[in-house]
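Expect sequence, tokenised fold; for instance:
***
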Amino acid sequence: SVFPGVRLPVSSGSPGAQRFTASSEFDISSCPITFYGRTHQRAYVNFTRQNLVVCFSGFYGSRTDGDCIFGPLPDSGSAEFEQYQRIPVLETIVKYSVPSIDTRMDSPTVCLLSLQSTLALIKFGPRSTDAWLPGHQRLQTRRLVQLSVGQDRLGPLGLWVRTFWFLPPGAVYKPATEVSSPETCFRLTCDKDVVLTTSSCGPLERCLGNGSCIPAALYDAIFNPKLDEVCTVTGPALVDFRGGVTSVRDRCSYSLLSLPSVPDFQVVASFQERRRKDVSFLDGVTLRLGGPSVRVHLKQGGRVLVNDATLTLNSPDPLVHPAGVELSKDLTGVTAKVSLSNFTVSVFFDGYTAQIHLQGPVGSALHGLCDNASRSLADLRLPESSSTSCNLLKEAPFSACDINPEPYITACTRTLCSYPDQDGLKCQFLEAYARTCRLKRNATLVGWRTKTECSHPEAFCQDRTCSDHEFCGEKTVGGDTRCFCRAIFASKYRDSNTLGDPTVCNQTSASLTLANCLLEDEGVDYAALHLKDLTCRGRMDEETHMVTFSFNGTNRCGTEVMNNNNQIIYQNTISNHGGSSSVITRRDQVFIDFSCVYSQEAIKAFKIRSSSVIKVITSGVWNYTLTMKAYTDAARTQPVESDTQVGLDQTIWVELKTDGLDGDLLSIVTESCWATNQESDNSSLRYDLIKNGCANPADPTVRVEGNGEGTSNRFSFNMFQFSGRSGNIYMHCKLQLCVKEGNSCIPKCNGARRRRSIRSRTGSPALISMVWTD
């Protein structure tokens, strides 16, 4: 309280007044003050231009969070500080001035600050502490309190007393007062004990303007809505901000996001093929800033390029580029973040997936696939990304032609988005435009080939013929040409990592067919390939360009035959190794194994009833022995024994040999050989091997050797069985003696008319038979 114009009566024993004219510090430990919930034992008094200030945590101005009381400046420019012992009259005066105080003074000492009026620092009981000194300790924020004159009235003992209220900045509240503001949800109460309390919305709440508080997040969603959207691109697929989905099917670049309110900003995605030409995948993301000046490229492998310069990011700590892009890298990928006007855009890329996180005001205009995936891809395709060659049609010397180049540029762009710039493809569009100008305007575009590096015109792949599954293309840019596999044809082989068709297996033969265009893709010359026998090489079909390698019972080409439990395995290898005397090679060696595996139970096998058939023949004056014997090799070193198994389609060599004939005079001619399913040589079911001394032209496996040349001859055939029948096969041969002198005993085959041999008048044909059992 302040008592204007009077000095209070005090008891004897006063330590005396301390007059001061400058800032001073006083010990008030004998009358400690509790102010804003803190107890102070020292007072600091300042003189300012307008006020005298009493603070309790340091001089005013030195600590901004100090607790202070502002009072009027004394006219004399000085003040006095005095300490007195407790006197009853002072307690009476105070209670008269502040009726709400109903407790007793509990301090034995009173501290007085005298100017024109007197400021008394007096401590009462707990309920009245806040009443005597400014009681705002319950405020959320500690405030400076200014004392202001309220009213003057005649107090007890005839002294004039001025009562002061405690004022927060800008308002005055009397005890037992309540103030509320529904617009701000603020409520203030100054109770009868002069205890000031306030309430309002919490730090995570917002006022609705009707006295109600709601969570801040809900309030912002209703009254301050903002964009907070994510767009995802992975593989060829894109999911936009609203959940719409689309797929990119070419190798172009597309605008993912642009902001009309920020015209120099754009996020661009580029796509490229991977394992298949018909499916494109996200390959990189570019942020375009400041028009054409800044390009931030996010590449696979965590690489970041600003324009064409590689930027090194060694830690997850953000690096801020001068263009305003914040770049960071961690084990998951690279992130580029930029703040533009009211927007924040964050782009994450891990080499396969990109996610664009957009934050900004609701209702803002957006553009790009991330805004609307259902838009036409052609509208958002960036033509300059496919090939700069297409846009050359806008420049000199093409600009000298007044024919609109845009249709050609569009056709060029769309094509090069879907197909790589190979086989002179870019030049084809430039050539077509130049020729159109010449035909329609009689205009020659001088120097365009030099500028575009397109060669002079000549028919592409002139005089080179490719098969239906091939096309003609360049080995190198502007270089030689060859036949390449068409993508669909090649895909079935590349998916299985092969160079041709599966092995075709027969009983004693096998073949493997390779695609020459696939061999050339691997840099392999088919002419250098061979089986284990270097003489067995591939045969190329001139129409299909397929190369076939094969072996059979007649020529095994080094094939190894192995037994593995109940399996018989025929194995060979195609390679380009061997046959060269050079100690070095500059080509990769090729090894292609192929084999046929048969289960022995599945193989139809025959055995000969007798390893050889011997028959004694008497023909006229000649007596001789005729032997019929079978072998499994052309050299006739491996005879077929009674325990030898012979498979279907296996080549068998049969020798017919006589003993007892004069070879200088006579020769033996095998007139015919045939097979029956019965022992009788006249069975109705018959298959001819030799007819009229010659191999049956209907069976290409039959070969006859030495017939009519001497006292022995031989033939070979591939083993067979009668269709739909099982059982033994009986092989019969009829032979005739021929006198050599003056006669040609050798049959004339291959279409020539055979001269008939002159038989001995006493001779008769000899018949010999061999039995094969199954």
